[in-house]
Amino acid sequence: MTRKPKSKPTNCPDCHVPPGLLHRRGCDVARCAKTGFQRLGCGHTSNACNTVWAGHWPGDAECIEYGLVLDLGPDAEPMPDLNRLYALCDWDPKQQRMLYRAPLFDAFTTKGTDGVHQILRLADDTRITLTTRPGSPGGIDEVFLWPGLDVPDGDGWNNEDSWELQLTAGDTGQEKGRLFYEVPVNDVRALIARHGGEHPDQTS
After folding, report:
1. What SS3 class is residue 51?
2. Phi, psi at 49, each rounded to 5°
3. Residue 186: in which H helix or E strand, if any?
4. Total H helices, total E strands in the chain
5. What distance in Å separates the CA atoms of residue 99 and residue 91, rounded to the nearest whole number?
6. Would strands 127-131 and 140-145 be described as parallel, antiparallel, or unpaired?
7. FRET pair for 138, CA 20 to 30 Å: which of 17, 88, 180, 184?
8. Above 90 in pLDDT, residue 73?
9. What is the reported pLDDT for 45?
């Protein structure tokens, strides 16, 4: 499923609630808060799984964030590709959003890297190096972008240190890249998604 997004927040196209309010019962657009799929078919009998209308079609924001869009030309807004979103992402009930699948990255964020600089190879053969603690409150403690990776837009990449690159295994040539501290987990996940996800071969 692909659709052209609306650039400005609007009322829900089915139940007509404004942004910030729960969908009305029977709304065809509402998603289940527990599964992320259409609420009409979720099977839950209470109103506890209802979700808030955010002003845009569910999943549009994640499609844009992860680069899961169709390019319609220089004069048109990108079209979210919801088919790819549901194929490549999983619903997170805690965050109430779709998260791009990145199992190695998730393991690092959950268990930490035990002080080791872990290299993560991305699908387009670019690389990042991560160092973090389990559940670090500041996000990923250190993120090193290897040469060939552009710095993403967003405030999450503001904390750059260009003087400490000797800490990231300079004998591999990494001193030519860029080092950032305390990058939010979702910002790093979006970077991984925009480069096609994790490479299936992490040995080279």
Report:
1. coil
2. -95, 10
3. helix 185-194
4. 4, 9
5. 6
6. antiparallel
7. 88
8. no
9. 79
pLDDT in tens, 79-114: 999 999 999 999 999 999 999 999 999 999 999 999
Tokens of 38: 């259409």
Mean pLDDT throughout 189-193? 96
Closest CA to 4 of 68, 114, 81, 84: 81
pLDDT tens figures, 150-183: 998 889 999 998 765 555 444 445 557 899 999 9
Q: Which residue has the tokens 């991984």?
A: 192
What is each CA distance from 21 to 61, 69, 74, 131, in whole angstroms? 18, 27, 34, 39
Which token pair is 96? Answer: 């109430």
Q: Give the integer Cα–Cα distance in Å for 180 and 130.
A: 10
User: Which tokens hold the place of 148?
Assistant: 């060939």
Residue indicated by tokens 């910002």: 187
- Dist CA 139 CA 132 (whole Å): 8
Instruction: Give, in order, the Cα–Cα distances in Å from 128 to each of 22, 40, 89, 103, 124.
Output: 39, 41, 21, 15, 12
Q: Which pTM value belongs to this model?
A: 0.80
Please give the distance of CA 89 from its chain centroid, rounded to a whole number: 9
pLDDT number for residue 23:
95
Cα separation, 103 vs 121, in Å, equals: 12
Instruction: Name the residue with tokens 């169709």.
Output: 70
